Amino acid sequence: MPPNSFRCTRCGHCCTNLEVASLPCDEEDYQRWVRQERWDILEWVNVIRVGGRIVLLDMWMDPRTGDNPGDCPWVSWNPADGAFSCRIHDSKPKVCQDYPVSEKHARETGCRGFDR
Ligand code: SF4
Ligand code: SF4
What we know:
The protein contains 4 helices and 4 strands. By secondary structure, the chain is α+β, with helices and mostly antiparallel strands. The strands form 2 sheets. It has a two-stranded antiparallel sheet with strand order 1-2. The protein has a two-stranded antiparallel ribbon with strand order 3-4. The structure holds iron/sulfur cluster (2 copies). One iron/sulfur cluster (SF4) binds next to loops. One iron/sulfur cluster is lined by residues 15, 72, 74-75, 86, 88, 92, 96.
């Protein structure tokens, strides 16, 4: 969880600059999506197995090109309230739930959630 003083402004910066962010996928997220049969989410997760064992999970890799698309496939702009939102909010990955982990982390990665 981010610190208590954090307030997300829904600016969308963290969801639209994935080329500068490392988004490793937690295996718990991966297994949850499998249980939920979220194949729409899972097709954007790159899975590397060695001998049947998962050794690497990467989000969000375009299933058609294999590239990181820059914008997360689940971010959406809402003209009604002039802000971005996450279309998989209820099942979003741990790395997104925990972002930013500190004020320093926010400032280093362009998040304005501590600016008031
Ligand atoms: S999954 Fe949701 S919170 Fe995470 S980067 Fe994508 S749009 Fe943003
Ligand atoms: S960059 Fe920070 S303030 Fe902007 S949407 Fe992401 S978490 Fe919220």
